[in-house]
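Milestone M4 deliverable, item 7.
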Amino acid sequence: MSIPDYDQASANFDATQIGKLMADPVMKPFTEDLKEQVKQKLVAGGVKLALTLDDLKGVYAGEICFANDQPNGDKSDGVVLTVDVTGKKVQVDALLAKISANQKKNGATQSQTQIAGVAVTKFDLPAQGGKPAGEAFYVMQSDLLIATDSKATLSYILEAIAAPKKDNLASLVAFQEVLKRAEAGRGARGYDFEWFVEPFGYAEVIRSQQGGRKKRGTDMLNLLRNQGFDAIKGLGGYVTFSVADGGPNDKQLEMVHSSFVYAPQDPKAENGERFHLGARVLAFPNDKNFQPYDWVPAQLASFLDFRWDVQDAFKFSETIVNEYADDEIFDELIESLEKDPAGPKVDVVNQIVKHLDSKVCMLVDVKQPITPQSEERLVAVHLLNAAPVKAAITQIMQQDPNAEKHEVGAEEIWEIHEEEEEIPTLVISGPGFPDAMAANNQFAQGGAGKPAIPNAAVSVVGDWVFFANNKDLIKKVILTKTGGANIERLSAAPDYLRVEEALTVLGSGEDSFRHFARTDESARITYELMQQGKMPESESALGKVINELWSMGQDDETAIREQQIDAGKLPPFAQVEGYLGPAGSYARTVKDGWFVAGAMLKK
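Output delivered:
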């Protein structure tokens, strides 16, 4: 990640509504505690440099760059910070003295060493909190302050300063393509920071920082490689914090992003396919027609509409399922659903899959009062022929002792109640994430060793099939669809129309994804659960990500953690939501990847 002008980026962020929120005195106790917790978690994750952006104030003269690398092969990790400190030697000397005092206070031993012919300050760091001993290196060379925990990385940088190298990040085709395409989409607009990730390498870095893979079960990172998902060579782009100028074309943009996911033709692909094995599920065709359907309610947290070759995805998922199970079970499973005397006797392919269209939607709603289960999620798939799908689902549900039918007018919702008996535990090391950051505890929330299947609901209404984690959300969708002209729908919501207008300015048109979010509603569950001291119990998507990040460094990262952030002094959410505006984004499929752009608007 690179910040070309930190002062400008900071000023731009501070001028946004979120920046003003974070600067509000009522938020200060919380933000200070959050900063300290983040710092501790970075240390737990292997960041050993004893440096923060606050430490660099007055020291930087230009670009600040932060990177993770693999200095000693795929199973290693390194972190490096470089700062342009032209004309700042006095300030750098003061900073290095502060670092020295802090490192010694933490038990480190300081020494001087020579690397690539340059005198370098080295600290030998003691083992702490179950983490092994480590090293940290600091040096200023050619107006560049360099801090890293890897001798190999520092040696490379110092050698490159002395004599430019060709095997660098700038020479990587994925890096070149990602930033070139993201910059083209960004247009003349400047940027506040630039980022790039090689996904599988980064996942290995984080895994290494956590001491290597610890979980039993299928290694999803290895599975994804085997299934051809490593065709995704890189992703990255630009982020700008913008302040509306009040002009006639003012869209009140708070933040704009422009990114590219680089996934060129896989040389292992066969028969004219773009990708190999399971990665062939990544087929998202473009479409000109994106408009919320007549069943999408006006009041919700987020709405995602995308195009996906669902029938092909089902077919290509066979190798993924078989590798995950370590057995050729896919065909057997499909056959058993049709022919097993104790099964539902449904021909899944011919009664369901062949009638699935490429239009897929996901929406999220928030149920109040807030509890760890407040996030309601729904997935909808458009049907080419609804009758056989509805018949098949009815047949399956009628034979399920845990299924209960609910009627909403002329429509039916089937609710599957939580099973009480113990089921086998599945442990998954997350795709693209290391063990410590993966959603490994999704099956463990029912108690140690006794995970439970959550409630679910399914319904076929008109030419759509709906799947949800709560029957109430499907009921809300049905009532919206059948409510007539006077019912409030998302398609007419003012904030949705504002976001769509902004996305049009940013280049949306014939796309494969379109996303709308109300960031206030999206943040409500996390905020109020923190106030209640129940954030570790959150079952929302955002909550799970935060909990996984905050579990870094725990001996048992699958256990429900204790809340560490003191949110008792946070103001009521009603005082905060006015700072959080709507947001949206779009993605477009191209021959070698996906272009993504979006924005957040003022409230």
